[in-house]
Structures are given as structure tokens and as C-alpha cells.
Amino acid sequence: MKFGWTAATVFLVLAAGACSWVPRPISEYKIDIQQGNVLTQEMVAQLRPGLTREQVRFILGTPVLADMFHANRWDYLYRLQKGSTGEIETRKFSTFFDDDGRLVRVGGDVSVLQPADLTAEPENRMREIDLGSIPEGTEAPPLEERGFFGTIMESLGF
What we know:
Layout: H1 2-20, E1 33-36, H2 41-45, H3 53-60, E2 73-81, E3 88-97, E4 103-108, H4 115-119, H5 148-156
Antiparallel strand pairs: 1-2, 2-3, 3-4
């Protein structure tokens, strides 16, 4: 009888301990948590002095913080916590307006396009192909050969 109580107590202690312990080789998946406005360099490069509040809102999006005590300042905050490493990345960007609601200056972690960058030739990010300019004698590329399962499906009539 005493052995039964001892075995039950040991079992309950081990069962309770197993609920809170996870072995190191096995870890749970943690997602990346992203909060705030994502601002890219291309978005910030579109800002110019004299833009209205609506134009800035169109380019950057709605600000996270529009303080009533600082009506001429909008703050864009961004925070990314990586689930796999726990590393936290933060960015802060502020826009400042004059009394007429025109953009005066910006500040923060994301830099504005420099005047030297304006004279540089833009990168060609998109490649266009004019289908009408293909010469007449050019053959079309060969169709993909069917694999093992494609051949079986074709032989079955699918």
C-alpha cells in the first residue's frame, strides 16, 4: 500500500514537472512581430520641402504619433522583434511642417536623398520586352519536357 502512494506521488511530481520543461533540442516557433510604419529609402526619397500634409501622408502613410502639443510634427515609428533570435530593430522618423502645413524638414534614422543622388542615372529595375520586335526567322523556345508523373498522367488521359 505504501508503495502505491509513493509511486503515485512520484508520478504526479514528474507529470507536473514535464508540463513546464521543454528540452533544448526542441523549441517552439516564434513569429516576427512587426509594429508601426515600414518606411523604405524610396519612400523617403520622394519627400521634398513644400509638400502638403496630404501629400506626405500619401507617400509615407498615416503617422503613428501626431501629438496635439506638437501639431507641426508627425512621428513615424517602426519596431520589429525577430522571433528566432529575439533581436529588436527600431526606427524613428519625424516630419516637421510650418504653420501653413507645408513640409519644412525631416529627421530620423532613414536618410533623405542627397543632391548628388539626383544627378545619378536611375537604376533600371524593370525590363520590358517588345514582342513586335522579334525577328521573323526566330524559333520559339522548346516546350518543357514532361517528367515521369506528367508522362503517366498523359498516358491515363489526364
